[in-house]
Amino acid sequence: MPQKHPVGSAVSFMNQFFTVQEKIMRNEDTAVYKVLSTRRRKLFTFKKVKESGRYGLGKQEYERQLLFGSVSSYTVRAFDGYYEKPKRRKRPLAPGESLLKRDKFRILMEFAPHGDLGSVVSRHGAFDYNVAWRFFDQILAGLGKMHRHGHFHGSIAPRNIFIFSPSECKIGDFGKGGQIREVEGHQAEMLHEEEARDIQDAVETLVFALLGRHAFAEDRERTEEFYDFLDVDGHSDYMDFTWMYPDWGWNMAEKDFFFIRSFFLPRREPVTAPPIYIAAKMSPRKV
């Protein structure tokens, strides 16, 4: 079967043409391409999402991305989006079927020259300590703005954090997000379940960046290392843990270890979110 968008073909956004340079990834629901603006000679990312229903995932993802890009410097910006023109019909409309139905949505967004965090670690290994923590702060700042506007990401992971420079990363891929559910009796100082999960996923991404490997999960299953990590209770246990898994001791301080561990303990009290997250969530200004 011929490719829908082969290298050298053109796609249109914002009344101008973009030339396909490379297919970045493709699966049954999504295709992502690197494209070059023929007018500005600048690289962008073109993403095509298969819809589910008239107002499906692609349109919702695009609208969330527009919102987040307007309030945070640490989310990948979208510039344009529209429904792909449907194929010519070979049959009459079925009863109740709409002419307005679309099955694919196109999004034009920023291009991350270094790719996603996972691929950078695969090529170069664990991040420098200061870079990993800087990126973690930026992820938290981006999440704070998303949560302030009532949305969660739902899929913070190395594959969805995009590296723009050695000093800047941005959150991308908003297809699994949604609106935060209001729970009756919820206390304002407490994190919603969706917010807490986003932050925990950000902490797991930090661990991946510091160690250069997936320590907590493989094939979506928790590792034995994760349960050993949870069993650490005090300095003596920490020393035993770092004897079994020495790269933890090589790549972070003991205080960092217990900071990370604090996000994975059963809680009977409000979760204490990191200050940079709270500042971003509380501030009305773009961060």
UniProtKB/TrEMBL annotation:
Biological process annotations from GO: negative regulation of G2/MI transition of meiotic cell cycle
GO molecular function: ATP binding; protein kinase activity
Source domain of life: Eukaryota
Keyword ATP-binding set for record: yes
Protein's UniProt keywords contain Chloroplast: no
Domain Protein kinase positions: 18-287
A Gene Ontology term for the protein's cellular component: cytoplasm
Swiss-Prot/TrEMBL keywords: ATP-binding, Kinase, Nucleotide-binding, Transferase
Pfam name, any one: Pkinase
Protein name, UniProt field: Protein kinase domain-containing protein
Organism of this sequence: Steinernema carpocapsae
